[in-house]
Design a protein that fits this description.
elongated; mainly alpha; 558 residues; 4 domains
Length: 558
């Protein structure tokens, strides 16, 4: 590696001297010498690019202080620009000099200079000296002329691509696949230049009629990277075309979102919502093909984490953002629900798609019973066209957290006998893999706990220890078991809603949060509850204040 560095430095000095000689004289001998060395010089440029792309702009100038002079001399040499791939490699090298976020006037000036040189390269092979003389005669200096020329060239090419897209099967007026591929290749090092945006958009939207993709994979990858890093901003239609045409880009966008979620603060759904909306994925998922890929990746994450509450919460927030985008895009669905949820009952999907805030509160209990009935038929009787089994129905149900998490509150706030439909729904939500017999046992256990809690809510004196005992949380059962998590959440709902629960809420949380894992679970529960209350507008001032205080205190402990 060190030897390569020494060799490159020696080559650098040799070619700097050569370029100076070629630049100072335009005799037949120098032109012949230039032509003799073109292949070797191109190989040097390629090695130079491999070194430059690993460094930032400041490091480049520290190691090669005269790099701008070397590249400028090469760019103004017509023999070099006309030879093989030298023009393309020069563009790559110049783009390495660009400061993505200039910190001072020197860096901004360098960026402007690079843009001017790039404009010259792109125009050098299409316009002769007469054009240059003509523009100078009109009083335009090259520094003013070339940026405008680049912009006009881009707009002209973009217009040609749009006509190509409209021409369809009119082969006489269509742009050749080779030219489309060449354009996409040339764009790769220029993608972050603002003036090139229209051409990038036109390439993405323009569909050829060939059986295979004709645009270069490097083009898709470079555009996707620039979008993810917020270096360019394209219309949503172009982003959708990118992700439809290049599956690895869509997968990388999802992985990029996962990385941001993992590195952010745990259990903060408002921040998660901002990340998700900023990713453009909910808007793009309005196209069913993109939705199915995103859906599958969420499904894999859920299975890999064995149904981690954080993943469930993220899926619910994403679904909420997706439905918002779907409603904003069109009031009536362009695609049938079956295209989004092909393995579930259409009637179940229609009910779950209703936002609870759009349903009168007096009908919430009735709607939950109807959801339970449809789910139970799909899970236990396999009717209504459900082909995916219990997990498929569960995955659809947990997506719509507004309904899923409303069950416990409805049970605790009613003095009547707990409806079997809601008990089944709660047991299924927390443990979808259970069979009928095991789920029936969970329903009996939950009904008993509800009875104790409702009796205690009428008591004049409440204690955290009595509450824990009544719920069976002081036994030696595994706290990670789904049934135990269900009962913990019932207790938390109780202390937030019951009239006397507020006085013992802190003591209850202290008794429950005896491990770091359960503490994180309770933080997630409180954050998710506040997020849902805020969305549905059902937060009581007292309960909301208590939940926020508990959440703040627990976050300081972890």
């Amino acid at each position: 590696m060190a030897q390569d560095s020494v060799d490159l430095s020696c080559d650098y000095q040799f070619w700097m001297q050569k370029l100076s000689v070629w630049d100072q004289a335009s005799t037949l001998e120098t032109q012949q010498d230039t032509c003799v060395h073109l292949a070797r010089f191109q190989e040097f440029l390629r090695k130079m690019y491999e070194a430059l792309k690993e460094m930032d702009s400041n490091t480049i100038f520290e190691r090669f202080p005269t790099i701008d002079q070397l590249l400028a001399k090469a760019c103004w040499n017509p023999f070099i620009l006309a030879y093989d791939e030298s023009q393309k490699i020069l563009i790559w090298c110049l783009c390495c000099l660009i400061n993505k976020e200039p910190q001072n006037s020197r860096q901004s000036k360098l960026n402007s200079w690079v843009q001017g040189v790039l404009s010259h390269i792109l125009s050098a092979l299409r316009f002769d000296k007469e054009v240059a003389l003509f523009t100078q005669g009109l009083g335009y200096a090259p520094i003013d002329y070339y940026p405008g020329l680049l912009k006009n060239m881009v707009l002209s090419l973009a217009s040609e691509l749009r006509e190509n897209h409209l021409n369809g099967f009119n082969t006489q007026r269509r742009m050749t696949p080779e030219r489309l591929a060449s354009l996409s290749r040339v764009c790769v090092p220029l993608i972050t230049l603002p003036d090139v945006d229209p051409l990038v958009e036109a390439l993405l939207v323009c569909h050829g009629h060939e059986p295979q993709e004709i645009l270069q994979p490097e083009f898709f990858e470079a555009v996707n990277e620039a979008i993810l890093l917020k270096k360019i901003s394209l219309p949503m239609s172009a982003v959708v075309c990118l992700w439809l045409r290049h599956l690895p880009s869509l997968e990388k966008a999802m992985l990029h979102l996962f990385e941001k979620l993992i590195s952010s603060e745990r259990n903060c759904l408002r921040r998660i919502e901002c990340f998700i909306k900023d990713s453009s994925l909910p808007q793009a998922a309005c196209h069913p093909a993109i939705f199915r890929v995103v859906d599958e990746m969420f499904r894999c994450a859920l299975l890999e984490t064995d149904g981690a509450p954080e993943i469930i919460a993220t899926i619910q927030v994403f679904t909420h953002c997706f439905l918002e985008a779907l409603e904003k895009e069109n009031k009536q669905l362009r695609f049938a629900l079956k295209t989004y949820f092909p393995y579930t009952s259409p009637s179940l999907a229609m009910v779950l798609l209703q936002d609870p805030q759009d349903v009168p509160r007096g009908r919430w209990l009735q709607t939950l019973k109807h959801i339970s009935e449809l789910l139970r038929e799909a899970v236990e009787d396999q009717t209504h066209g459900s082909r995916g089994g219990p997990l498929e129905s569960w995955f659809l149900f947990i997506r719509f957290g507004g309904w899923a998490e409303m069950v416990a509150e409805q049970l605790l706030r009613s003095a009547a006998e707990p409806p079997a439909a809601l008990l089944w729904l709660l047991a299924f939500y927390y443990s979808p893999r259970d069979g009928r017999q095991q789920r029936a046992q969970t329903m009996v256990q939950v009904k008993a706990v509800l009875g104790h809690l409702l009796a205690m809510s009428r008591s004049s004196s409440l204690s955290a220890r009595d509450l824990q005992t009544a719920a069976g949380q002081d036994t030696d059962t595994d706290p990670r078991a789904p049934a135990e998590q269900l009962i913990r959440h019932l207790l938390l709902h109780f202390v937030l809603w019951a009239p006397g629960g507020h006085t013992i809420a802190r003591d209850v949380v202290t008794l429950l949060a005896h491990t770091a894992e359960i503490t994180h679970e309770i933080i997630g529960f409180l954050d998710q509850t506040l997020y849902r209350w805020d969305r549905l507008g059902i937060e009581s001032p007292r309960s909301g204040k208590l939940a926020r205080e508990l959440l703040k205190e627990l976050r300081t402990q972890v």
